[in-house]
Amino acid sequence: MKIFAIIPVHNRKEITRNNLNCLHNQTKNILSVVVVDDGSQDGTSEMILKEYPNVVLLNGDGNLWWTGAMNKGIEYVLNVCEPEDYILALNDDLTIPNDFVDNISNATKMHPNSLIGSVIVDANDKENILSGCTKINWWTAKRSNIDTGKKITSFPKGYSAETSVLTGRGVLIPVTAFRTVGLYNNLHYKQYSDTELTKRAEKAGYKLTISYDSIVYSQPIKTNNIMVNSAYKINDFWKYFFDDHSNTNLKFRFWFAYDTANNFFQGTIFLLCDLARITFHFFKHLKI
């Protein structure tokens, strides 16, 4: 088994360097790294070519976004991989412990035919879980981050939990899953296509699992899938609901509701509940 890590990057040279250093220091040598640089102007590609000659570097023109960059990397991997191999979807802003690849590859033995996600721990407090198992009510759109705020050391070795969706922040996906369900949905999502693909894979018979041995470290950035600020101004309205970088983007919310639903009626109920939730959040924190 070989693991191909695919990392989309754009104008974050030092962050990318830190991430590649982490991958270079892994204790288990079954990793091939593919970086998709979507038009960086800060010397990211030049740094990679000079300092990490074994990394496969693919380039975009600045219009790939996360979804297009991931798909470019996946298309490359599917042409060179073996049937038993895996793809690791990874963001460049994560800090990866040296035993990460060892741990997540061991999880595949316990969880065959599965997509395996990482538990995300606070980089500033390496005991505190930011995101682990997520449960979604597919009617009311209520999301529960089950283990957020708990101590990672409170979970025994080998612990895992089924989850409703997985993000692209350290998720291991069998190459067979992409051959079965296709790539990330570039038509409906420039960003945030990661959760939809994992739900699509679940519908095709794959299990979605979080391995609590597989830890990645991150800065805390958002809560319960809502773009969180302590307060909003009225001119934040457009950014909150329509900016492509916002996870409360209405187009994303619309397509996620219908793409993941079992039928049109369920998708409509989910969408209405979800829109009510994110709208309430905005106006609750609106300062005029």
What can you see in these coordinates?
- There is one protein chain.
- This protein has helices at 13-24, 44-51, 65-78, 100-110, 175-181, 194-203, 237-242, 250-260, 264-284; strands at 3-9, 31-38, 56-60, 86-89, 114-122, 129-131, 134-136, 143-145, 160-162, 171-174, 207-218.
- The protein contains nine helices and eleven strands.
- 35% of the residues lie in helices and 21% in strands.
- Helix 1 packs parallel to helix 2 (44-51) and helix 8 packs antiparallel against helix 9 (264-284).
- The model is unreliable at 222-226 (pLDDT under 50).
- Strand 5 (114-122) and strand 6 (129-131) form a beta hairpin.
- The longest helix has 21 residues, at 264-284.
- Strands 1, 2, 3, 4, 5, 6, 9, 10 and 11 form a nine-stranded mixed sheet that branches. Strands 7-8 form a two-stranded antiparallel ribbon.
- It folds into two domains: 3-218, Alpha-Beta Complex (Spore Coat Polysaccharide Biosynthesis Protein SpsA, Chain A); 234-284, no CATH class.
- It is globular, with a radius of gyration of 19 Å.
- The chain has 288 residues and is α/β, with parallel strands linked by helices.
Helical percent range? 25-40%
CATH overall fold name of the largest domain: Spore Coat Polysaccharide Biosynthesis Protein SpsA, Chain A
**CATH architecture field of the largest domain:** Alpha-Beta Complex
Radius of gyration (Å): 19 Å
CATH class category label of the largest domain? Alpha Beta
The helix-strand sequence is EHEHEHEHEEEEEEHHEHHH
Cα separation of the termini: 56 Å
Largest sheet: 9 strands, mixed
Question: Structural class, from helix and strand content?
Answer: alpha/beta
Number of contiguous helices: 9
Query: In one word, what is the shape?
Result: globular
- Mean pLDDT, nearest integer? 94
The stretches of 5 or more residues where confidence is low (pLDDT under 50) are: 222-226
Total number of beta strands = 11
Q: How large is the share of residues in beta strands?
A: 15-25%
| Total domain modules | 2
